[in-house]
Amino acid sequence: MKTYNQIDFLPVPKVETIDTLGAGDFFHGAFCYHVLTKNSFRDALQKAADFASKTCSFKGTRQWLNKLK
User: Fold this and answer.
1) Which residues contact 48 (CB under 8 A, 6 or more apart)?
2) 56 in Cβ contact with 19 (< 8 Å)
3) For residue 21, is pLDDT > 70?
4) 58 against 62, higher pLDDT
5) How far apart (Å, rounded) are the C-alpha atoms in residues 34 and 10?
6) Confidence grade of residue 27 (pLDDT, cut at 50, 70, 90)
7) What is the value of pTM for the model shown?
8) If you average pLDDT over residues 28-46, what whole number do you get?
9) Residues 6 or more apart in contact with residue 53 via CB below 8 angstroms
């Protein structure tokens, strides 16, 4: 377990970046959701990074939703 002042790194998925608009908002939203649903801090960061990186593969902030259907 890492303690205060220690550094750790998380892998971020490689994606074809088309548009980063909204990625930070999606990251923060996903992070808060996963922290509040009892995930560890590190797991919440990883899940948020995974989610936010995927949103960068689409133009605009909502086009990725069409892939969920």
Assistant:
1) 27, 28, 30, 31, 34
2) yes
3) yes
4) 58
5) 16
6) very high
7) 0.78
8) 95
9) 12, 13, 15, 23
The residue type at 8: D
Query: Cα(7)–Cα(65) distance, rounded to whole angstroms?
Result: 34
Separation between Cα atoms, residue 16 and residue 40, nearest integer Å: 28
Q: What separation, in Å, do the N-terminal and C-terminal C-alpha atoms of the chain show?
A: 38
Q: What is 4-63 written as a DSSP string?
A: TT------------S--TTHHHHHHHHHHHHHHTT--HHHHHHHHHHHHHHHTTSSSSSG
Domain residues of the chain, as ranges? Answer: 23-59
| Amino acid of residue 39 | N
Type of residue found at 33: Y
Q: What is the dihedral of CA 51, 54, 59, 68, to 10 degrees?
A: -80
pLDDT of residue 3: 67
